[in-house]
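Exercise 7.
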Amino acid sequence: MVTRPQTTRPCTLGELRASGHRQLTVKQEIRANLLTALREGRDPWPGIVGFEDTVLPQLERALIAGHDVVLLGERGQGKTRLLRTLYLLLDEWTPVIAGSELGEHPYEPITPASLRRAEELGDALPVAWRHRSERYAEKLATPDTSVADLVGDVDPVKVAEGRSLGDPETIHFGLVPRSHRGIVAINELPDLAERIQVSLLNVMEERDIQVRGYTLRLPLDVLLVASANPEDYTNRGRIITPLKDRFGAEIRTHYPLALGDEIAVIHQEAHLEAKVPEYLLEVLARFTRLLRESTAIDQRSGVSARFAVAGAETVAASALRRGAILTEAEPVARPVDLGTVVDVLRGKLEFESGEEGREAEVLEHLLRRATADTARSALGGLDLGPLVAAVESGDPVITGERISAKALLDELPKLKVLDQVAKRLHAESDGDRAAAAEFALEGLYLARRLSKISGDNGELVYG
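Solution. The predicted structure, written as tokens, is:
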């Protein structure tokens, strides 16, 4: 939320000069604020997980050096999120010429209209204050993006008002000049047609724009940042060599390197409509990481962090649906809900050409591996032998999408080891305890200590 600037701020150019305000370029502003945050031990990158020792130090060096930056990485690695945090390094409020089209600094007007006003009004030139959130502009590069969108073009309405075609004030400015004294982010830069990329060359090097045949030079003050997929994957286009050369830094992003970071991303990004126990989120995180290692998956396309996030939301939705059908007051996700991920999310993955027809088989196998690995990690050290013996000697345990948590608990044998499982997995409510017990049974099945068969109506029978 943007707060209002203090009413005591200078309202005219004369008051601004008297206040001792010092003008900085965008890159100087970012450098000063970043160095201040680092000295004070504050995190300049809220919400960015897993880049602390790799990407962020490189990005910080690039910004301190005053470089324009391009982030290279596969889909779902957090490139856009990282770009959207850059504006936090700007001053919270900055002065602009009130009513100016490009938000020029009162000390340095650059458009003909602002230059004329500054000359006429002198120290009475009105000053407004702009919040840093308004100084960040983002453009998703698409093949139909035009030079007019980015740089500008002749405005036929202004011409119709009686101005001559040679008048610079007939220009309608595009995104880049309108971001003067701010940050311009271009997502998926290679998707821009090469002739459109050429229009950015002057912006990157000479810091001005050229519109058709106009002799208009605007000394723009912008930080240009972009994201792109690696060129070996992006067959739809490339960053032209002259433009690539003008970026001061090219930084490679990556998927979370640690399992804990993968889980942290799920916690941060997923909107869960029902409770999903921590160990099930770990299963989804491990599943995602196994997919990134699988030879059956096209790794040039990558497996987005959004896959695990969408998986967690799907598992929560499955639990909520079961709760509505069975009138459970507080539904909790159980291992039986994990199977919905394979059915719903397989379209988010690109498989290698030789895997046609085996997609579901590959995903189910890797999901079982992820569940088994998580069960060993979460329940290691517990002697589950009494549970195995009780299930083998007694009645089978039936679970499934249509089995409530209370019904599942009523079927389970009364064993001390189930209390130990519940304690280990921090399960307190009936829903939590049912999920924990089902997780233990699934772990025993995957360890080949119990059998599991599919019954009618989606029921699963452990015996």
